Amino acid sequence: MFQNLIMRKPVPPAYKAEETPKKKGRGKLSKQMVNVFRTTARNNIDLTAIADNKASILLSLNALMITFISPTIIAYSDKIIEDYLFVPLLIITFTCAYTIWLSAQVLKPSHFDSIGDKMKIGDGPSPFFFGNFYKMKPQEYFEFLQDSLDETDVLRSHLAQDLYYVGRRLGEKMRLIRLAFTIFIYGIFTTILSTFFVLFWC
Fold first, then answer.
1. Dihedral, CA atoms, 163, 169, 172, 178, nearest 10 degrees?
2. What is the mean pLDDT of residues 31-36?
3. Residue 149 to residues 112, 129, 146, Cα–Cα distance (Å)
4. CA-to-CA distance for 158 and 59, rounded, in angstroms?
5. For the chain, which end, N or C, has fewer CB atoms within 10 Å of the first or last residue's CB respectively?
6. So what's the pLDDT on residue 202?
7. pLDDT in tens, 106-152
């Protein structure tokens, strides 16, 4: 008897409640997509920091050069005019001033109000960009954010918005810093050549 009980197979229950499939959250994104957004955002932030550091170095260097050039021009103005040295000094002064201006444009915060008004990719402006909500009251922002988190497509569009405008600003920074380095390099070489020309041929 005991042997029959041991060998007997368990009888499956007559009724088993069907498992309801888990509903996916409407605002959830796949892990792979989140990693892509996170990696891209981190890369953009790192590149932005590199561009800002280069601009800071250029700005500081050219500011020091102007600081040393100005007293020299004032102290030896007669000699400079007599030997035509004002030509290379004008070139280097213009180079430093223009490079400082370009570097300041790189470091200057963008006009985010106008950028936020143009965000029409998703369902309205992104709630993750501070320029779109820094004037809002807390309750207004919470409702603004909740509307975006409720829909996956809208959430994806807002994240794409942020990546696009951060990348566009990064591209503008890189363009300006490249132009600043080009102006600085050509200005230095032009100053050296003009100095030799003035000293040996004038």
1. -90
2. 79
3. 23, 14, 5
4. 35
5. N
6. 64
7. 998 876 655 544 444 445 677 777 767 777 788 877 877 777 777 77
Q: How far apart are CA 188 and CA 181, in angstroms?
A: 11
Quote the mean pLDDT of the chain.
78
Query: Are 164 and 121 within 8 A, CB to CB?
Result: yes
The residue whose two tokens read 């309750």 is 139
Measured on CA atoms in the order 73, 193, 53, 163, is the torsion positive or negative? positive
**Sign of the C-alpha dihedral computed for residues 36, 39, 43 and 45 taken in this order:** positive
Q: What pTM was estimated for this model as a whole? A: 0.71
Say how far apart CA 195 and CA 201 lie, in whole Å.
10
User: What six digits make up the tokens of 161?
Assistant: 């918005």
163 contact partners, CB below 8 Å, separation of at least 6: 37, 40, 41, 44
**CA nearest to 126, candidates 101, 96, 162:** 162
Q: What is the 3-state secondary structure (H, E, C) of the chain?
A: CHHHHHHCCCCCCCCCCCCCCCCCCCCCCCHHHHHHHHHHHHHHHHHHHHHHHHHHHHHHHHHHHHHHHHHHHHHCHHHHHHCCCHHHHHHHHHHHHHHHHHHHHHHCCCCHHHHHHCCCCCCCCCCCCHHHCCCCCHHHHHHHHHHHHCCHHHHHHHHHHHHHHHHHHHHHHHHHHHHHHHHHHHHHHHHHHHHHHHHHHC
